[in-house]
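Appendix B, example 12.
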Amino acid sequence: MKYISTRGQIDAIDFQQAVLMGLADDGGLVIPESIPDVADRLDQWRHLSYPQLAFEVIRLFATDIPETDLRELIDRTYGRAFPETVVPTVRVGDLFVMELFHGPTLAFKDVALQLLGNLFEYILARRQGTMNILAATSGDTGSAAIYGVRGRKGIRIFVMHPAGAVSPIQARQMTTVLDDNVHNLAVAGSFADCQNIMKSLAGDLGFKRTYNLGAVNSVNWARVLAQIVYYFKAAFDVREATGEKRIRVCVPTGNFGNVLAGWYARRMGAPISRLILATNRNDILARFFNTGDYSLGKVFQTLAPSMDIQLASNFERYLYYRVGGSPAGLRTMMGQLRQTGSLRVEPDESGAVDPLFAPASADEQQLLDTIRTTWQDHKYLLDPHSAVGVSVARQLAASGAEPIVCLATAHPAKFPAAIRRATGEDLARHPAIDRLMELPTRCTAIDNDLRDVRRFIVEAIG
């Protein structure tokens, strides 16, 4: 399998190069040259363990890693940092919930970033190389990335988060990691500002090559690839429980990476009839799939901070396919977005922007009501992001016959204030979170300035 850029201005590269490159050198996003069709393998796959299933999916894309090595990397990832089931599916009333939060930082991003850390270490060891990772986070990516690479040889990580705009626990998960190769930067700006700094530095090819800059955000293809696996697992779990061969999947999303993995899974042949796209008050993605209009606006801070995003960094991959795989068309569209803050895709004759996506949003009150009623009715506790998904799933449940699987993206213990507000009780606890409260922290406050961030990185590397 070879990889190209959405903007069409790099030579085709192999998987290991794609992992190290992160953001494509032409400013685009790395994508596979083709999408394998596995529809005829589903019956063979549906009884596999999670590591076995991950191997079958990932080996189709990582063809330059010997299969014995790849299997060992996957077994090490999902055999050590997760419970045996990795991502269990549980029934909650009329819905199914897939729990993606059983990794070391209690967030769905562990599923991909634990693997990515192992991939980085494997590839760099064979190339006798080093890497300096620059990441922007609205909450969970930062801690999951840090836990994926902390203490690893040849790797430093610089994580930018918007100062005061991530939950206190998310901040502590990042800043209590004191390993020498970990640097936390609290940027006086928004997540979009952090993301723009990251993309600007990664787009400066001289700087990127001089300082061996890499990426762990979902701009890195390996992140999306690892997440494709659990969409197949969700379908197999529901079939085992109900006999139903197709499902709908509800995905709370802000940066479009998680739901994009579901889109790729569907293109590969996963038995998914609809992707229910759930947004919070920052509903730019829901508005796009409802109207075709993608217009940047104000970022609102909400109880689901990881979804407080306007510019979704993975959206470019979807747009590439939407313009027929035309790099020139994609470059024009992204230039328009950069210049005007908006772009438009015309709906089809039926009025649908994309019939695979069913978009809707949930406001703060709906989020709180969903946490409360789900606890009262089922004694099941949702975090705010997962509650957005469950709220939207309930809104759209009657629009189709297939069972709905809601992706639960974080453990509720990461958001105790929202849980107390919703339920009136102190229910959101986890031993790993409790231990954080007594640990020392290390973080550098920094201005929202590209030059300051560049200077910090250069001085830290030495």
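The domain at 89-106+222-432 is CATH 3.40.50.1100 (Rossmann fold). The chain has a mean pLDDT of 94.
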